[in-house]
Amino acid sequence: MNRLIVISNRVTVPKARDKAQAGGLAMALAAALREYRGVWFGWSGKSVPQFTGQISMHQSNGVTVALTDLEEADVQEYYNGYANKTLWPLFHYRNDLTAYDRSFNLGYQRVNARFADTVRPLIDPDDFVWVHDYHLIPLGRELRQRGVKGPLGFFLHIPWPARQLLVTLPRDRALVEALFSYDLVGFHTEEWLDAFVAYVLREAGGTVLPDGRLSCFGRTIRAAVFPIGIDASNFVDMLQTPDSIRARERVERSLNGRRMIIGVDRLDYSKGLEERFVAYEHLLATRVRHRRDVFMLQIATPSRGDVGPYQNLRAKLDALAGRINGGYADVDWVPLRYVNRAYRRDELAGMFRAAQVGFITPLRDGMNLVAKEYIAAQDPEDPGVLVLSRFAGAALQMKEALIVNPFSREEMADALDRALTMDLAERKRRFEPLMHSVMTEDVAAWRDNFVNALREAAEVRVQSEVA
Ligand code: ADP
Ligand code: G6P
């Protein structure tokens, strides 16, 4: 088996006991890498006065990790800047929040070149190189320029935006052109792939070849869909650990016979948290019978706190939570438990198990792994109900969930009401196919499908170079 060199900005190898709020990418990659010999390279999360290009290597939970520090200016311009003030909002359809600043793009290109310089000595000719996410789109081009000739794949963990949005980005074509240095470019859903292809054909004058490959900028690539999954059997096993059981019992004791609605997210404007709170408030306002027999637990772990819109969102959510609890709480009942701290993964699993409703309503999300974790944590004999936004990539796979429009508080309140009153037979009927797909379309299947497609795409390239 060839070695796999995985490269992403964020590197965290999560363990059951970890409190680190890692995000979907890190959760998936750690699980994917454990099976392959290989290295996971990325940013240490630390900044230094001047970039040195030094690598520190260590083993973490069965994975070889190689990390490099970034310069303070890199963190500002590349991570806080181009990645999280430009690409993240734009790709999540928030061009009202998108900052277009030339220094951000310069920092982005600089860090991608630095990543390439630093990781290049780790790459052997037989290695498969797999680059992840919006931070590192130009890395493939930089690696090719440094003589990497083997299979080179890219996976985008967030949505690909509609062509009409992407054209608002200065130097949009250069960003798309950079993707044509890879052999294979992967997306979570058909929707994101279609948007990418539409840009290539209509903005960049590309064509689809008879074998389905895309040709543009004088190069040919394969672009395809690989829906990511979770490490499902591991998540299910985690439910049996004493810590998970303790976490579940702790929540259950506090229920006092009430039912719990749960949401778990990074504190991010793409997750629809404000809209979710307002929908829950609408439920309390319009369905008096649920007052006092329900409460909502929202865990929202702070994320990207140096970026303005994240600070604003936090303040808005604090105010909204105060309004809801101020308006409806009683001496012995708090309708919204709003928590900003991180929990361990095994504890989270136990809390999912204790919740009758998983309320997961992003305004836009590449996939959303929490939806899959909620399902994996349910008791098959008495499962809870998943209420899921139609704008999460996961909605395309999880059709048996109650699918909602997160922009409509009425629709979300209706779905909550329906979930809270659904009989056991319907809950099981919906749960069984969801659980089946979470267990089978798991992270190992995602990794293997991508790596096999990468092998094939690189072979086709080599053959066409020879011809
Ligand atoms: P994103 O990648 O945008 O953060 P996902 O839903 O795809 O969203 O993935 C989030 C991942 O981070 C999930 O595996 C989830 O369990 C984990 N996570 C979210 N909040 C916490 C938390 N408070 N503590 C531990 N893990 C968390
Ligand atoms: C999403 C992104 C990842 C990112 C994660 C956490 O999952 O797709 O690339 O790592 O959020 O965000 P952070 O900025 O903390 O790495």
From TrEMBL:
This is Trehalose-6-phosphate synthase. CDD domains: GT20_TPS (cd03788). SUPFAM superfamilies: UDP-Glycosyltransferase/glycogen phosphorylase (SSF53756). GO terms for biological process: trehalose biosynthetic process. GO terms for molecular function: alpha,alpha-trehalose-phosphate synthase (UDP-forming) activity. It comes from the Bacteria. Pfam families: Glyco_transf_20 (PF00982). Belongs to the glycosyltransferase 20 family. The lineage of its organism: Bacteria, Pseudomonadati, Pseudomonadota, Alphaproteobacteria, Rhodospirillales. InterPro entries: Glyco_trans_20 (IPR001830).
